[in-house]
Amino acid sequence: MRIQIQNLHKKYQRGDTELEVLRGISCEFASGSFNFILGPSGSGKSTLLYLLGVLDHPTSGKILIDDTAIDSWDEAKCNAYRRNDVGFIFQNFNLMSNLSALDNVLVPFLPRGIDQDLTQTAAQLLERVGLKDRLEHKPNHLSGGEQQRVAIARALLKQPQLILADEPTGELDSSTGRMIFNLLRELGQEQNATIIVVTHDERHVTSKDTIHRIEDGLFIDTDSEKEREK
User: Fold this and answer.
1) 63 vs 191, more confident
2) Is the pLDDT of residue 3 over 60?
3) Residue 224 pLDDT
4) What is the rounded CA–CA span in Å between residue 98 and residue 7?
5) What's the helix, strand, coil split of the chain in %, to 5?
6) 84 domain residue, yes or no
7) Which of 60, 118, 155, 230 is most buried when burial is the number of CB atoms within 10 A of its CB?
8) CATH of the domain at 128
9) What is the predicted pLDDT for the residue at 226?
10) Which has more confidence, 176 or 1?
11) How far apart are CA 101 and CA 164, in angstroms?
12) How many structural domains comprise the chain?
C-alpha cells in the first residue's frame, strides 16, 4: 500500500482557541516500507497516525492511498478500509476484560465467523510474541507488556496491508521490544505490508528504515535508505 500526503493540515477548536496540530506536511510512504515517525510529545505524531487510519479527518490537504484520495470515500468505504486493510496497534491496548488473550485476538473476526484455521493462526501469532502459555489468560491476569503483545497479535491476524503502531513497545523491556520489532519486520515482508511506527524511541531503527522527523506539526527531515545511497 502506497501512501502520499499532500500539504496536510489539522486544526482543533479548544473553546475560543484554534490549535493547529499539523501545519502543511507532505511526504510519501512507499509500498512495503518500514517507516518511523520520530518526534517529541505534542509534535503531531499520533494525530497523523489517526488521519492515516481514517479515524479522523484532516482540516485541509490530501491523503492518497494507492493514488486514490480518501476524501472521496463514503463512510462504508472508510469502514471497510479500517476493517480489512489496516492493523492498529494503540498505546492503550483496547482489550476486552472478559475475554481471554486468544479471544481478544479473534474479536475483529467475530462478525465474519471464526473457524478452526483462524483460531490456530491466532494461537500461533500469540506464540510468536511469546505468549504461548497465556492463551487463556484474561487481561487482568496479564502484565502491561503482555497486554501490548496481545494487541500486536490482534492487529497482525488480519494480514493488513497497512500497520499503524503508536508507541508499540512503550510497555515492553528492551529485549521484548527487539523481538516485537523483528516480528513486525518479518510479517511485513511476508505480507508486503507498509508499516508506520510513531515513537520517540530510536533504539529499534535500522539502516533499512525510512525515518521521518516531525516537530511542531511539520516534518523537519526525512531519511531513507534510497536517499542515503545517492
Assistant:
1) 63
2) yes
3) 67
4) 43
5) 40, 30, 35
6) yes
7) 155
8) 3.40.50.300
9) 53
10) 1
11) 21
12) 1
Evaluate whether residue 230 is within a structural domain. Answer: no
Amino acid at 160: P
Calpha distance 19→38 (Å, rounded): 21
Residue 70 domain-assigned (yes or no): yes
Nearest alpha-carbon partner for 33 in 168, 210, 186, 200? 210
Query: How high is the mean pLDDT of the chain?
Result: 90
For 139, the 3-state DSSP assignment is: helix
Would 96 be classed as within a structural domain?
A: yes
Q: Could you give the CA distance from residue 154 to residue 230 in angstroms, rounded to a whole number? A: 39
Residue 172 has pLDDT above 80, yes or no: no
Amino acid at 103: D
Q: Residue 64: what pLDDT?
A: 96
Strands 194-199 and 162-166: what pairing?
parallel
**What local confidence, expressed as pLDDT, does residue 227 receive?**
52
pLDDT tens column, 119-154:
999 999 999 888 999 999 999 999 888 998 899 899
- Give the single-character DSSP code of 7: E
Domain of residue 22: give its range: 3-225
133's grid cell: 502459555
Cell numbers given for 193 = 505490508
- Is 213 within 8 Å of 219 (Cβ atoms)? yes
